[in-house]
Amino acid sequence: MKVISADLEVVAVKPEQFPKDRRPEIALSGRSNVGKSSFVNTMLARKALARTSQRPGKTQTLNFYSINEAFYFVDVPGYGYAKVSKTERAKWGEMMENYFSNSECLKGVVQLVDARHAPSVDDVQMYHFLKHFEVPVIIVATKVDKLKKTHVPKHVKLVKQTLDFDDQDQFVLFSSMTGQGKDDAWGAVRQLIQI
Ligand code: GDP
């Protein structure tokens, strides 16, 4: 995929603010520090498009990045902070539910998990949350460069088993360090948005 333009076009917290142009959307979700910004920057071949890690207390927004004026990557707030209050957690849940149940243009979600470890309780919950809304998911297992090649199959198995991975979903091994998986990830995204 040749990325000609990638611009933050809409920042939204509620459905009325979502873009109205009906272009397909792919949301990007993951625990803080999983490598989401690095993933986006690798995919778009940009040095620093995505904002750096969100921190608790910062306004939680849905950021719609228009790609080639053809579709959107929607950066959704990270989850899994240890110190997030109950109120904040509830707000996050409400916003995500609003988005997943109202966005007619959402074609799928890239959910990032760290290839090195079993997915966390939050990762598993998020995956099941997405399955509940019947959203197709692309699991992108990041930082695969940090694994010994011979250990990779064992880690894939652990990640899939822990998530109770649905074989209808796609699974991509990824490294923003080496670029491994970039073409596979684009293939998976394009399949969902049909371009
Ligand atoms: P975010 O909080 O999910 O947006 O995570 P970042 O993209 O900011 O990455 C968090 C940390 O992990 C940074 O120190 C990155 O350099 C590192 N990182 C991200 N992706 C990879 C990867 O594929 N391989 C390695 N080795 N490090 C990575």
TrEMBL record:
Keywords per UniProt: Cell cycle, Cell division, GTP-binding, Magnesium, Metal-binding, Nucleotide-binding, Septation
UniProt-listed Pfam families? MMR_HSR1 (PF01926)
Q: Does the keyword GTP-binding apply?
A: yes
Q: Name one GO cellular component term.
A: cytosol
| Example GO biological process | division septum assembly
Cofactor names: Mg(2+)
* Residue intervals of the EngB-type G domain: 22-195
GO MF term (any one): metal ion binding
Q: Which SUPFAM superfamilies match?
A: P-loop containing nucleoside triphosphate hydrolases (SSF52540)
- Protein's job: Necessary for normal cell division and for the maintenance of normal septation.
Q: Which HAMAP family match?
A: GTPase_EngB
NCBIfam families associated with the record: GTPase_YsxC
Q: What family does this belong to?
A: Belongs to the TRAFAC class TrmE-Era-EngA-EngB-Septin-like GTPase superfamily. EngB GTPase family.
Q: What is this protein called?
A: Probable GTP-binding protein EngB
